[in-house]
Design brief:
By secondary structure, the protein is an alpha+beta fold. It has twelve helices and eleven strands. The chain has a single domain, classed as DD-peptidase/beta-lactamase superfamily (Beta-lactamase, 3-Layer(aba) Sandwich), CATH 3.40.710. The strands form three sheets. The protein has a six-stranded mixed beta sheet with strand order 1-4-3-10-9-8. Strands 5-7-6 form a three-stranded antiparallel beta sheet. Helix 5 runs parallel beside helix 8 and helix 6 packs across helix 8. The radius of gyration is 18 Å and the shape is globular. The N terminus is likely disordered. It binds 6-diazenyl-5-OXO-L-norleucine. The site of 6-diazenyl-5-OXO-L-norleucine has 12 residues, from loops.
């Protein structure tokens, strides 16, 4: 089958569409819980009543419910794309500068960086993604633009954009990320200028994509590394497997163990309220709702993924 001819397409199974609609209905009962991230002021005025869900099966069917086509700030979901790109470009050398273990700390904590000689615990906390961004600043003239192009290709949506208001807002409130970057620079673990690396990192976080865009774009993690929109390998199968492993252990910050117990899927969240989860060999899911719990994970999106995981055994494609 040539995947480029018809992928993704609107889902063809009425049963699966009804299931996705039902998950949306049930997840909306969690709206009103949690708080919108306001430490990035440009995110503070998101509508807490939004909820979107998109499920993309590996054969290219896309099922959507609610606000699945509204673009939102992907924030830390960009860390999955950044890591994939860095591993494609530099291979396992990255792991000399970034660890592979859960931090058990908030995503923007500085405590371990000082005692662990400026080597972040993993690529999904802010400090780890800043090192990954440093890698890419060394490799590409305009790394954020490059990531935007990749996000467009993988999602099949040429309207994916960096939101410059969010970028400026993060830059204006960068003290904690700048502190992490300077600390890593002091330990020799940041090669380029701090301002240049932070700008690239913030620009990647400021990409705007919808649940549908993200479920399609990150489907390669469910499909042994093969991109749905191009039919070409984006990363080798073993790399997709390893990225999934890291998402499983560190994708949900200090709540990773709790989420793994409840949902049991590799997942990554962002403070814009999006969460992507992967069912290897079968499908990718993105759920989005802006209000977050104390760890920075969307309350309603987590619940939707919990419901999806409960039901997975019912569907055999
Ligand atoms: O650097 C930050 O704090 C944000 N740009 C990204 C944080 C984020 O999404 C972490 N997620 N839960």
């Amino acid at each position: 089958m040539n995947a480029t001819l018809s992928c993704p397409r609107p889902g063809t199974s009425p049963v699966l569409q009804a299931w996705v609609n039902d998950i949306e209905r049930r997840a909306r009962t969690r709206l009103g819980m949690g708080r919108i991230a306001d430490y990035i002021p440009a995110l503070a005025n998101q509508d807490p009543a939004c909820f979107g869900l998109a499920v993309c099966t590996n054969d290219g069917n896309l099922y959507m419910a609610g606000d699945a086509e509204i673009p939102f700030s992907i924030q830390s979901l960009s860390k999955v794309l950044l890591l994939s790109l860095a591993l494609r470009t530099h291979g396992d050398g990255l792991w000399r500068r970034v660890g592979l273990n859960p931090s058990g700390m908030p995503f923007n904590s500085l405590m371990q960086l000082e005692t662990e000689q400026g080597k972040p615990r993993n690529p999904f906390i802010n400090a780890g993604a800043i090192v990954v961004a440093d890698h890419l600043v060394g490799a590409f003239a305009t790394p954020a633009k490059h990531l935007q192009d990749i996000a467009r290709t993988l999602s099949g949506n040429p309207r994916v954009l960096i939101d410059h208001e969010v970028l400026a807002s993060e830059w204006g409130h960068r003290a904690r990320n700048a502190a992490a970057a300077y600390l890593m620079k002091a330990f020799g673990n940041l090669y380029n200028e701090v301002d240049e690396v932070l700008t690239a990192y913030f620009a990647c976080c400021a990409l705007r994509m919808s649940c549908a865009d993200l479920a399609v774009a990150l489907n390669y993690l469910a499909a042994d590394g093969r991109a749905l929109t191009t039919g070409e390998p984006f990363v080798p199968p073993a790399m997709a497997q390893r990225i999934n492993a890291l998402m499983f252990t560190s994708g949900m910050y200090d709540a990773a163990g709790d989420f793994a117990y409840r949902v049991g899927l590799p997942a990554k969240s962002g403070v814009g309220g999006g969460i992507v989860a992967i069912v290897p060999g079968r499908l990718s899911v993105c759920a989005w709702s802006p209000a977050l719990d104390a760890s920075g994970n969307s309350v309603a999106a987590q619940y939707a993924l919990e419901l999806i995981a409960e039901d997975l055994g019912r569907w055999h494609q």
